[in-house]
Design a protein that fits this description.
Elements lengths: L16 E4 L1 E2 L18 E2 L2 H14 L5 E5 L8 H14 L5 E5 L2 H5 L3 H9 L2 E9 L3 H7 L5 H13 L3 E8 L7 H15 L3 E6 L7 H7 L8 H14 L5 E4 L10 E4 L3 H12 L14
Parallel strand pairs: 1-4, 4-5, 5-6, 6-7, 7-8, 8-9
Antiparallel strand pairs: 2-3, 9-10
Helix pairs in contact: 1-2, 6-7, 7-9, 9-10
């Protein structure tokens, strides 16, 4: 397989064939993100992608899922993306689901009919970074679009039949806007109503603009208890029709897996016990990106 640079994939795609169809991220200006540092965005040649698909056909016959890397495969022109999905269907007929990252900008570029076509061709799940529902935080972090725009595109993805997995980041508002960030994010998640929420806790990546701001004393990350209070506020305000709220990423101080709406109160009780010192939090040294 032709892999260039560091490959990023969602935790739930750990058992998937990773098919790199683009390089880097089409936006690449988020202050907190160091995932594709030094990697210029680009589209890989069709012959390279086909060669990797044929390799997977020979060597990965037991794997039923494919994840399209890098940061935003949805940005591909419709003809190129439908071609890739058709090649997967032709050469890997046992694959049951294809997944990809998508941002609001790339979803906006697709018509409803084009999204439906991608779903029909096997693209089954998209992973979307909301990060925050607070417009002030989104502007500060260099995200593309405001919360209303991101929510709208997430709802379009769901309407097209995709399973929608949305990422949010506790701590992204800093100490100053911690509760505003938590409440606005809960409101955005409720309006978007994704199938799954992945809540991470902010960790600095050296060399990113946010890391440099912290070094200069211009941004302060909440401590462990502050992050936990923020997580509680966010979870308390999030209403999903039916979905998972996961805070079990390696960056989190208190792992949680919550089925909403039924499991919310039990999870809030777990957080309250941790805040009261009855449950130990993960040590700082054990946290990972």
């Amino acid at each position: 397989m032709d892999y260039q640079g560091m490959i990023i994939r969602p935790p739930s795609e750990a058992g998937s064939v990773l098919l790199q169809v683009t390089l880097g991220c089409s936006h690449g200006r988020c202050a907190f993100c160091g995932a594709y540092q030094g990697k210029r965005f680009g589209i890989k040649p069709r012959e390279t992608v086909l060669r990797d698909i044929l390799y997977a056909a020979r060597h990965f016959r037991d794997q039923r899922r494919i994840f399209l890397c890098d940061g935003d495969a949805m940005i591909l022109p419709q003809a190129r993306l439908t071609d890739i999905l058709s090649l997967i269907r032709e050469h890997l007929p046992w694959v049951t689901r294809v997944g990809a990252y998508a941002n609001a900008k790339s979803l906006k570029r697709k018509t409803d009919a084009e999204l439906a076509e991608l779903r029909e061709l096997g693209l089954g799940i998209v992973y979307m970074g909301l990060e925050s529902g607070d417009d002030a935080v989104l502007r500060d972090m260099g995200k593309n679009g405001d919360a209303a725009f991101i929510v709208e595109q997430g709802r379009r993805a769901r309407a097209a039949g995709f399973k929608l997995n949305v990422t949010v980041i506790n701590g992204l508002g800093g100490v100053e806007r911690s509760m505003e960030h938590a409440r606005a994010t809960a409101d955005a998640l409720t309006r978007m109503d994704p199938d799954q929420v992945g809540a991470l806790s902010l960790m600095l990546v050296p060399g990113t603009p946010l890391s440099e701001r912290c070094e200069r004393g211009e941004f302060e990350i909440p401590d462990a208890r502050g992050i936990l209070r923020e997580l509680r506020e966010m979870l308390a305000g999030t209403e999903l029709t039916r979905g998972l709220f996961l805070a079990n990423h390696a960056s989190n101080y208190l792992p949680l897996k919550v089925r909403l709406p039924s499991g919310k109160q039990a999870a809030l009780n777990d957080i309250d016990r941790a805040l009261a010192g009855m449950t130990p939090l993960k040590a700082e040294s054990a946290r990972r990106l």
